[in-house]
Structures are given as C-alpha cells and as structure tokens.
Write a structure and sequence with these properties.
157 residues, mainly alpha, Arc Repressor Mutant, subunit A
Length: 157
C-alpha cells in the first residue's frame, strides 16, 4: 500500500487535492463518519482518497491489526497516520479499530464456543484481561455475561 504522503505536499500544502477539494472532501467525510459510526463499511465508498479507502478495507478485513502495523505499511509515523485518518474521516483510528474488534468479538461470542482467551487473541488482544476491560468499557458487561444473555445460556449453581 502506498503512503499518504504525496509529491504535491510541499510548502505547507495540505494534500495532493486542490485546496477547495480538500476542504470539501474533509467536510463530506466528517459528515459521513458522524452519521455512520456504527456502519464502518459506509466510510469506504464515502472516502475520496484511494489510499485511505484501501486502508479502510484492510482494517475491515483484519480488525486485529495494530496501528503501528498500519503505519509501517503506509510508511508513516503512527501519529501522522492518526492525524491524517482523523482529518479525512472524522473518526479516531484507535476508536475505529476498537469498534471493529468489538463487533468481531460479539460475533464470536454469539456464534462460536471459543473461549474468552481465544476470542481475545483472535481480535488482536495480547492479554485476555485487556480484552475483558475493553469489552466491559464498550458494552457495560463482561464477555461471559454478554454470551449468556445473547445465547440463552444459564449458569446452574
């Protein structure tokens, strides 16, 4: 995948787009991102930058990827990638990755019998405890509780 950096970015110009197009594209993408936070796929066609669209497709197909991996692939620093992503889509890159991971985790919880540890690893968390904390922050309940409520399992004491 090519980097976001373009030959047109000299002397402080914002991007390879003309100045009017940059403002319009940023406004369009921000509006699309805010109205479609739950629908990640809607961002991909709404994005005018082909490089960013490809990055979104990578994230959608591999939600366990890390920001530093994406930055290396784009030949950018993590902070620059985060800044460009936020500028162009209106969403934080870390937040988007978390949303994708949580969506995938709920699918695993609903449709598989994988352990919480296996799910944590599958969605990109090195430590099960980090996954459980992130899941609880996102859904207000532990993954086991989510699975029990969604799948109709009961704990018999």
């Amino acid at each position: 995948m090519s980097a976001f950096y373009s030959a047109g970015r000299k002397n402080g110009s914002n991007s390879s787009l003309a100045n009017g197009e940059t403002a319009r594209a940023t406004a369009d993408n921000t509006a699309a991102a805010k109205s479609n936070r739950a629908k990640f796929g809607a961002l991909i066609p709404a994005t005018h930058d082909a490089r960013l669209r490809k990055l979104l497709q990578v994230i959608e197909s591999h939600p366990s990827c890390k920001i530093h991996e994406l930055a290396l692939e784009c030949n950018l620093s993590e902070s620059h990638l985060r800044h460009l992503f936020k500028q162009r889509t209106g969403l934080g890159l870390g937040r988007l990755l978390t949303e994708q991971r949580m969506r995938l985790a709920t699918d695993f919880l609903k449709h598989t019998s994988l352990s919480i540890k296996e799910i944590a690893s599958s969605v990109g968390y090195e430590h099960t405890s980090s996954f459980i904390r992130a899941f609880e922050r996102h859904f207000g309940q532990a993954p086991n509780c989510y699975r029990q409520k969604r799948c109709g399992y009961e704990i018999v004491a």
